[in-house]
Amino acid sequence: MIPLPAELLDYILEQTARIQQIPAPTFNEQQRANYMRDEMLKIGLDEVFQDEMGNVFGCWRGGEAPPLILSAHLDSVHPADLPLPIETTTGKIRGPGAADNALGLAALLTIAKCVVLNRQRFPGAVWFVGDVCEEGLGNLAGMKAVVDRFGDAVQGYLVLEGLGLGQVCHRGLGVARYRISAHCEGGHAWVNQGEPSAIHELAAVIHTLAEIILPQKPRCSLNVGIVHGGTSINTIAADAYCEIDLRSEGQTALNRLVQRVRRVVTARERKGVHFEMKLIGERPAGGIRPSHPLVKLGLECLAELQVPAMLEIGSTDANIPLSRGIPAVCLGISRGGLPHTVNEFIEIPPIRLGLQQVLLMIERIWQKNGNKRDRKSV
Questions:
Q1: The predicted structure's pLDDT at residue 367
Q2: Which residues make Cβ contacts (< 8 Å) with residue 82, sequence separation at least 6?
Q3: Are the C-beta atoms of 229 and 197 separated by less than 8 Å?
Q4: What is the pLDDT of residue 1?
């Protein structure tokens, strides 16, 4: 096993606190990206640069075998003007964005520092990547650029998240997000009584969507998360919109659900009532089998560390390589709770196991795969 010096456990806690203090809402990750770039340079990686998207790359060179990509997303769900208090106790770190994904980024730096300190080279290069636009409507744009850069000539992707130690996420949950807009002429609540209202029409659509019986194999979900419209209480609304989130374990089922929603929307169209359904977010589904060498390696490393393991599906940066038939898993560094809230927290003691899990996988992945890749997807 690659040695993990004790001082690196202090280092990862320090880096988590520093990174958490740097605002990084989706589309505005530059300050945090600059910090990651500077830290990678201090660590002494062989090559460090940023691409046009704002992704940060650091390379630890190896042999001629396909490289391994280690990534963690730079962005947070929290707005730039949100206060970022952080509290560290003997057992926990608490603060907005501490787990998602300050810890993941801190782990990226810690693992890079560990391999440099040990001067350990591998059959292929290890790339350490901090990518943009993972959260919300970023649509995984940063990871798309990363995968475009490397193509399929890689050993695989290890995507790091702060939470989820023990989970080997080998399937990407498909997501499609739409803004449904209703448009009418509108008018005065009394004078034009009886004329169609965009709010009423949109409400009818939402009511019908809520009655859809969703399939459970593969599992699907439908959520209306935002509703907005109208100008005043005594005005018949001319415009209203809602934003919906559709998810499925399978891309075909997701496509069918989208078409079902589209039929509901189209059915409300008539003279004086117009609808638009615009795609605002998309995350393709994909996956590799539980028997894939990368998945088996993840489970074996957790078993060796005596960490209870489970296979999982999720909506992460791993969606992009998985949807293209490229091996990838998403791994958690620690345990905790309340992600995406101001009370988000991480448990400190399990962090050592999370780091050791990743180091074991780096050390063994070329041997496990025999310097080749099994690209069979589920």
A1: 86
A2: 23, 96, 342
A3: no
A4: 79
The strand ranges marked E within 114-173 are 124-131, 156-163, 167-172
**The pTM is what?**
0.92
Residue 375 scores a pLDDT above 60: no
pLDDT exceeds cutoff 60 at 239: yes
pLDDT at residue 177 tops 80:
yes
DSSP state of 13: H
DSSP SS3 for 217: coil
Structure-block tokens of residue 135: 């959260």
324 phi, psi to nearest 5 deg:
-105, 10
Residue 78: Cβ within 10 Å count: 23
Asked if residue 71 lies in contact with residue 59, where contact means CB atoms within 8 angstroms, the answer is: no
Contact yes or no for 73/57 (Cβ under 8 A): no
- Classify each residue of 92-120 as buried b or exposed e, where b means 16 or more C-beta atoms within 10 Å of its C-beta: bbbbbbbbbbbbbbbbbbbbbbbbbbeeb
Region 313-333 average pLDDT: 97
Helices 7-20 and 351-369 cross at an angle (nearest 10°) of: 100
Retrieve residue 23's tokens. Answer: 């605002």
